[in-house]
């Protein structure tokens, strides 16, 4: 094993060392990269500067186009490659994309575009914002926005892929990204004729070929502030040298559906693996170190970890689910249990193979594997119950 090079790493927060950072700008810019996940509504950005002091300064941003703007930020001074990779995985590992090189002007354009959402939606900037406020105040610089979008948007590979992304952005109120997927003479009555919300499920069926492409039908389940809605729409997808684009998008009808009907549409069998944890505190420490890209959240009965797929290939299928980007989920309970869940048996098996690794030696005892006809994992997580078997008893499972 190679010896890890020591670094003079400093994590900067709250605007410390502002004087040292005042020189960031075109002259100190080394490089910047952004993930090609703009069509998912999020972008991760990584920037590297060489300060006048000679220090190497990294900034990492998480950008959200559905109202949150610049919603997460980290910075490092003089890190080694392992530290940069760890923070990068923690901030952007769940986005499912790859990094593309962007210029200084494109960096400024992106940050200012998303910052405008912070302002319009009255969303606060993340802690440490004074370290990048100078960039937000930079004068407007020339930027080929179409070329930038072409690099930070995933290449669209088929009709369903194009329609899922288009409707995802439309329902999310992200019209700039939706417009990127429309050809120059597109007909569109959807943008102004649907309620904004979260696209939970979308099924595409292509009816017939048209003069300029294929005429398709989409049935969308959307979670809006008015409740669950099913929206039927008709879309004409064309394929040219620019790729797949929407030539026509027309809403046919929409209807309210009950929580029960929505749950039925989202119903999928669920695979569970249940473990007993020998040393809870030690396991949590090791699990977090070994899985920096997993998103975690604290709940009444334990800690929930979410592991996302390394790509967004689920968007290419005719039937799209919002949670299709999740590989597996892990709930560590106060009752010394680990519950692993996925909608695919293969992915639970991959999780079990990972947990059988040397890093977790002696910490876990596998209890049993279960197939649930109806999903119960998140209900258990939110129930406040610490023991899944007691939860099963209460539910009569």
Can you tag this structure with a few keywords?
6-stranded antiparallel β-sheet; alpha+beta; 6-stranded mixed β-sheet; 397 residues; globular; Nuclear Transport Factor 2, Chain: A; 3 domains; Double Stranded RNA Binding Domain
Description:
The chain has 397 residues and is an alpha+beta fold. It has three domains: 10-151, no CATH class; 156-264, Nuclear Transport Factor 2, Chain: A (Roll); 267-395, 2-Layer Sandwich (Double Stranded RNA Binding Domain), CATH 3.30.160.110. Helix content is 27%, strand content 37%. The chain contains twelve helices and 18 strands. The strands form three sheets. It has a six-stranded antiparallel sheet. It has a six-stranded mixed sheet with strand order 7-11-10-9-8-15. The termini are far apart.
Q: Helix and strand layout, with pairings?
A:
Layout (H helix, E strand, L loop, with lengths): L9 E2 L6 H4 L7 E7 L6 E9 L5 E9 L4 E9 L3 H12 L6 E4 L1 H17 L12 H4 L8 H8 L6 H13 L3 H6 L1 E7 L8 E14 L2 E12 L2 E14 L2 E15 L1 H8 L3 E8 L2 H11 L4 E5 L2 E7 L10 E3 L4 E8 L3 E6 L2 H11 L8 E9 L4 H7 L4 H8 L2
Parallel strand pairs: 7-11
Antiparallel strand pairs: 1-5, 2-3, 2-6, 3-4, 4-5, 8-9, 8-15, 9-10, 10-11, 12-17, 12-18, 13-14, 14-16, 16-17
């Amino acid at each position: 094993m190679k010896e890890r090079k020591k670094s003079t790493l400093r994590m900067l927060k709250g605007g410390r060392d502002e004087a040292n950072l005042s020189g960031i700008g075109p002259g100190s810019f080394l490089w910047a990269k952004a993930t090609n996940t703009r069509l998912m509504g999020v972008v991760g950005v990584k920037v590297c500067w060489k300060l006048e002091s000679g220090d190497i300064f990294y900034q990492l941003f998480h950008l959200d186009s559905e109202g949150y703007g610049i919603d997460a930020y980290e910075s490092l001074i003089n890190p080694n490659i392992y530290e940069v990779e760890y923070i990068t995985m923690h901030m952007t590992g769940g986005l499912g994309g790859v990094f593309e090189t962007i210029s200084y002007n494109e960096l400024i354009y992106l940050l200012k575009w998303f910052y405008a959402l912070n302002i319009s939606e009255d969303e606060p900037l993340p802690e440490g914002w004074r370290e990048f406020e100078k960039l937000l105040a930079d004068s407007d610089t020339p930027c080929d926005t179409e070329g930038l979008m072409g690099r930070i948007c995933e290449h669209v590979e088929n009709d369903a892929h194009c329609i899922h992304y288009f409707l995802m952005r439309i329902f999310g109120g992200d019209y700039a990204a939706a417009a990127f997927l429309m050809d120059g003479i597109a007909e569109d009555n959807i943008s102004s004729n649907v309620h904004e919300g979260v696209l939970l499920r979308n099924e595409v069926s292509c009816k017939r070929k048209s003069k300029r492409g294929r005429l398709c039908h989409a049935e969308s389940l959307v979670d809006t502030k008015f409740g669950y809605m099913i929206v039927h729409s008709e879309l004409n997808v064309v394929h040219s040298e620019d790729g797949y684009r929407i030539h026509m998008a027309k809403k046919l009808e929409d209807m309210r559906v009950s929580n029960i009907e929505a749950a039925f549409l989202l119903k999928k069998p669920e695979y569970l693996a249940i473990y007993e944890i020998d040393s809870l505190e030690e396991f949590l420490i090791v699990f977090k170190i070994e899985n920096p890209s997993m998103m975690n959240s604290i709940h009444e009965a334990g800690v929930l970890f979410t592991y996302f797929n390394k790509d967004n290939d689920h968007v290419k299928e005719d039937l799209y689910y919002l949670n299709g980007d999740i590989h597996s989920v892990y709930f560590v309970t106060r009752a010394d249990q680990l519950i692993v869940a996925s909608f695919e048996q293969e992915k639970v098996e991959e999780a079990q193979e990972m947990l059988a690794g040397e890093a977790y030696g002696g910490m876990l005892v596998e209890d049993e594997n279960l197939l649930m006809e109806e999903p119960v994992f998140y209900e258990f997580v939110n129930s406040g119950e610490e023991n899944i078997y007691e939860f099963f008893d209460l539910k009569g499972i």
